[in-house]
Specification:
The chain has 688 residues and is an alpha+beta fold. The chain folds into 5 domains: 6-185, ATPase, nucleotide binding domain (Nucleotidyltransferase, domain 5, 2-Layer Sandwich); 220-224 and 464-596, Substrate Binding Domain Of DNAk, Chain A, domain 1 (Sandwich), CATH 2.60.34; 232-256 and 308-382, Actin, Chain A, domain 4 (Alpha-Beta Complex); 267-303 and 387-440, ATPase, nucleotide binding domain (Nucleotidyltransferase, domain 5), CATH 3.30.420; 599-687, Substrate Binding Domain Of Dnak, Chain:A, Domain 2, CATH 1.20.1270.10. The strands form 7 sheets. Strands 1, 2, 3, 4, 11 and 12 form a 6-stranded mixed β-sheet that branches. A 5-stranded mixed β-sheet has the order 13-23-26-27-28, with no helix packed on it. Helix 4 (178-185) crosses helix 10, helix 8 runs parallel beside helix 9 and helix 12 packs antiparallel against helix 13 (634-652). The N and C termini lie far apart (69 Å).
Length: 688
């Protein structure tokens, strides 16, 4: 709940009434957030009717059993909103339910012999469910909403959306274009200042590849990332019985992803790339701030109403089914339940390959037979390339319509779950010559933007935290639960910092980069902003890899974090909005706590660093003794052993004296200088 009572302002929620999924959000002084109930925030835009024409299921239950009730399960009704029957002829081949002509030849759906419903009625059921979800989350009656629509919706489609809201008991106070809502979620076009040439020049410099601005002499070790497991589907079926509809059984695996003022000036040109499950749209917007509020001009749109992530799932399913048929040496007519399981399995595989280099596929075929194969990220990307190229072609068409070149686009915003696919982000970045905005959840960004518009209409103060400076320090987790801060609080934006880290385990090939916000020294006392994995590092001795982590906060307050292993050039990155969900009071409290606990925090951090350094040094000493131990006299070996034992005692003690620990570590390092020299000499002689 907000720190400000929600009854001080009119309660206006934001709703993304989507083709595939719908969400409701609300924005207060701490920024927008998705409203959830026990079923989460996402509501599949699916409604199932029973044989009597009554609503039998809404959302996920309706979607999960769509294969069993194909003619009475209604989905993608957004395609029919405000359309005539003649307008939707091209859609009918994609819809298993009956679309018929209603009054004035409008498109309606025949759900039973005696029951015909309009798309507005079906959408109203979804809106009513979202209304209930919001009321449960906020504890208040919700009567007003901002609802989003595609930029290409005409007046009839927009009016149909308003009608659906009215049927659901909602006053739709504003209809907002989905691309504009996405821009609003990032704060683009809202309260923009005149451009600062000095800041812009700095931003241009920071966004170019270059050397680090800061670097510590002693790289800190990062935590190791465990290898992910196998993606598997345990679906047993009798192949002989699969030719009969309804036979067989299938398992559906449970597959488990601030705002700031823009600094570009009073005008921004933004491209919104919206790739969902079944549709793709690209819009080019000109955003202007006027005394009356934000004005958005849709300069050009393009898209494909049958292009989405479902196509990728279908590619994987077809590959699996084809190879199973070859393995069993027979064509198989898979029953609906198995096809549904295959689709879920394919989606899980696609998600895994967005973060890993390969996925191991396993399907139990029954009778002791198993389908197994490894599918690589490169293999899937080769399959997907024509699919992504179709979307890129639409982008080029939109640019042509707008009479623009890619360099005239200030920002590119990614919307829709399918924009998580690395190949999509790569191709979009290459076309527009910029890193796309992905900091906000692409499934939620439209609803969040609608909530921002609602907060503006409600008069809620939108004086957000990150105006010109970083409100709280930003850093990453290092081994032992300490925080290495890269950008300190009150740093002017845009800002950049780079620091070098290393590994702590022998042969470590993966590290997890955990991004944190706060003024305290330990992870447990800071706010987690997100994490990502750097994988594929060649196995090397601990401490040898050079992992360069860069933080770049751009003029819009979006944090770009990248990590590169310098020897192998393996790289990974993520975007985050660091002030999302914090009020000024919460920032003040966190700063006060950092001062109150400053001494104990610094001591705890120092002890973590000392332990990490001690372990690395003792490991190096052990390697050196194994290498040149025969050249050491007994007295020197005994001296080293004593120094190491003292340091080991400090490592094992729960709360040792930090100063004494530092003195012991320094004494051990000085005592082993001759050992290190002998080891280096031995290495040089071996290389000659």
């Amino acid at each position: 709940m907000s720190s400000t009572p929600i009854n001080e302002h009119p309660l206006i929620v934001g709703i993304d009434l989507g083709t595939t999924n719908s969400l409701v959000a609300w924005c207060d002084e701490s920024g927008p957030r998705i409203l959830e109930d026990e079923n989460g925030g996402n509501l599949p835009s699916v409604v199932r009717y029973d044989e009597q024409g009554n609503v039998a299921a809404i959302g996920k239950p309706a979607r999960d059993h769509a294969v069993e009730f194909p003619t009475t399960t209604l989905f993608s009704v957004k395609r029919l909103m405000g359309r005539g029957i003649a307008d939707v002829q091209n859609e009918l081949n994609y819809l298993p339910y009956a679309v018929v002509a209603g009054e004035h030849n409008t498109a309606r759906v025949q759900v039973t012999e005696n029951k015909v419903v309009s798309p507005q009625e079906v959408s109203a059921i979804i809106l009513r469910e979202l209304k209930a979800k919001a009321e449960k989350a906020l504890g208040k009656t919700v009567e007003k909403a901002v609802v989003t629509v595609p930029a290409y919706f005409d007046d009839a489609q927009r009016q149909a959306t308003r009608d659906a809201g009215r049927i659901a008991g909602l006053d739709v106070v504003r209809i907002v274009n989905e691309p504009t809502a996405a821009a609003l979620a990032y704060g683009l076009g809202v309260g923009e200042a005149e451009p600062d040439p000095g800041k812009q020049a700095m931003l241009d410099e920071l966004e170019q590849d270059g050397t680090s601005d800061t670097a510590k002499n002693e790289p800190k070790p990062l935590a190791q990332l465990n290898e992910a497991g196998t993606v598997s589907l345990n679906t047993k079926f009798n192949t002989e019985a699969c030719t009969t509809p309804g036979s067989g059984s299938g398992a559906d695996p449970n597959v488990t992803g601030e705002l700031d003022h823009d600094a570009f000036g009073s005008n921004s040109t933004v491209a919104v790339f919206d790739l969902g499950g079944g549709t793709f749209d690209v819009s080019i917007l000109n955003l202007q701030q006027t005394e009356q509020g934000i004005v958005d001009q849709v300069v050009a749109t393009s898209g494909d109403t049958h292009l989405g992530g479902d196509d990728v799932d279908r590619m994987i399913v077809e590959l699996i089914q084809k190879e199973i048929a070859v393995q069993l040496d027979q064509e198989i007519d898979f029953p609906p339940s198995t096809r549904q399981a295959f689709r879920s399995f394919a989606e899980a595989t696609k998600i895994r390959l967005s973060n890993s280099e390969y996925a191991q596929l396993e399907i139990d075929l029954g009778e002791g037979r198993t389908y197994q194969r490894s599918i690589t990220k490169d293999e899937l990307e080769e399959m997907m390339t024509p699919w992504v190229d179709r979307a890129i072609a639409c982008c080029k068409e939109a640019l042509k319509k707008a009479d623009m070149t890619p360099d005239l686009i200030d920002r590119v915003i990614m919307v829709g779950g399918s924009t998580r696919i690395p190949l999509v982000r790569k191709k979009v970045g290459e076309l527009f010559g910029t890193v796309p905005y992905t900091a906000l959840n692409p499934d939620e960004v439209v609803a969040l933007g609608a909530a921002v518009q609602g907060s503006i209409l409600a008069g809620i103060n939108r004086d957000m935290l990150l105006l010109d400076v970083i409100p709280l320090s930003l850093g990453i987790e290092t081994l032992g639960g300490a925080v290495a801060k890269l950008i300190m609080s009150n740093t002017t934006i845009p800002a950049k910092a780079t620091e070098q880290f290393t590994t702590h385990a022998e042969g470590q090939t993966n590290v997890k980069i955990h991004i944190l916000q706060g003024e305290r020294e330990l992870v447990k006392d800071c706010r987690s902003l997100g994490e990502f994995d750097l994988t594929g590092i060649p196995p090397m001795p601990a401490g040898l890899p050079k992992i360069e982590v860069t933080f770049l906060v751009d003029a819009n307050g979006v944090l770009n974090v990248s990590a590169v292993e310098k020897r192998s050039e393996k790289a990974a990155r993520v975007q985050i909005i660091p002030n999302h969900g914090l009020t000024r009071e919460e920032v003040d409290r966190m700063e006060t706590e950092s001062m109150t606990h400053a001494r104990e925090d610094m001591t705890a951090h120092q002890l973590i660093d000392l332990r990490n350094q001690a372990r690395l040094d003792m490991r190096a000493i052990e390697r050196q003794i194994n290498k040149v131990g025969d050249e050491l006299d007994d007295a020197y070996r005994q001296e080293i052993a004593e120094k190491v034992a003292i340091v080991q005692k400090f490592v094992d003690t729960e709360n040792p004296d930090a100063n004494a620990f530092h003195v012991a570590l320094d004494a051990m390092d000085k005592a082993t200088i001759r050992l290190a020299e002998l080891a280096i000499k031995q290495t040089l002689s071996e290389e000659q």
